Amino acid sequence: MQLILLGPPGSGKGTLAADLEQLYEIPHISTGDIFRRNIREKTALGQEAETYIDSGALVPDALTITMVADRLEQDDCKRGFLLDGFPRTIVQADALARLNALQDKPLTAVLNLIVRDETILKRLSGRRMCPRCGRGYNIHSQKPCAAGICDDCQVTLVQRADDKEETILKRLQTYKEQTEPLIAYYRERGLLIDADNEGTIEACFQTVRQLLDDRLGRA
Ligand code: AP5
């Protein structure tokens, strides 16, 4: 199964992906997570990506496409993949289509997560991350056992650098200008599934699961 999670910042792509990855046993590939890992490890890729990410802009297509193409070559993608945050531009979508054709792995579906801007602002301003392992939490919906401390690493949680309100607004604008056109792109190709992602984390997962079952003709 080859799935894409499409949706604005904070729409819940990463949260949903964690459950879908287990359900379908396909690797969750988040371009944002790969960039952040490279930033933490101070690689050349991380250093190049960091300025774009911190300002709420997109990392250039060429860099991002090469990174994803390398990742999709890996053995664990033989069963399929779950892309989160890629593609984000028409250029990236065209590159992915060429790659899928080369690997004979056509897309199964593109889930379009629909969430209001005010919900996004609340979710992103409440998000906290572990600076050591990258695990995500939320002061409203995904609280750690001890306030402000990672359950796994016992270190103090931090806010993502791009979760400042001004950067969130810039990311939303970037999404509307550069990524939203992908909704029509995939709808025209008969791949888009609209999913309301406003409910609780569990309710959203069940909704998406049902939508995918319907699409795949499962009982
Ligand atoms: P990326 O990390 O992909 O950021 P994003 O798309 O802005 O998405 P987020 O991670 O902020 O949100 P999400 O939709 O995954 O929501 P989440 O599940 O975490 O990318 C970061 C940056 O990297 C980009 O801005 C860009 O610069 C660069 N980049 C990445 N990919 C690129 C590409 N292809 N091309 C170029 N540049 C690229 O949820 C958010 C919060 O809400 C969490 O705290 C969660 O607990 C909570 N939550 C989730 N669902 C629910 C729910 N149903 N109810 C209540 N709370 C919920």
- Average pLDDT value? 95
Which class do the helix and strand fractions yield? alpha/beta
The end-to-end distance, rounded to whole angstroms, is 17 Å
Q: Pick out the low-confidence regions.
A: none
SSE pattern, N- to C-terminal: EHEHHHEHEHEEHHEH
Strand order of the largest sheet: 2-3-1-4-7
Main beta-sheet strand count, sense and barrel state: 5 strands, parallel
**Helix residue percentage:** 40-55%
Task: Note the total helix count.
Answer: 9
- DSSP summary, beta strand count: 7
Shape: globular
Give the names of the bound compounds. BIS(adenosine)-5'-pentaphosphate
Q: What percent strand?
A: 5-15%
Whole-angstrom Rg: 17 Å
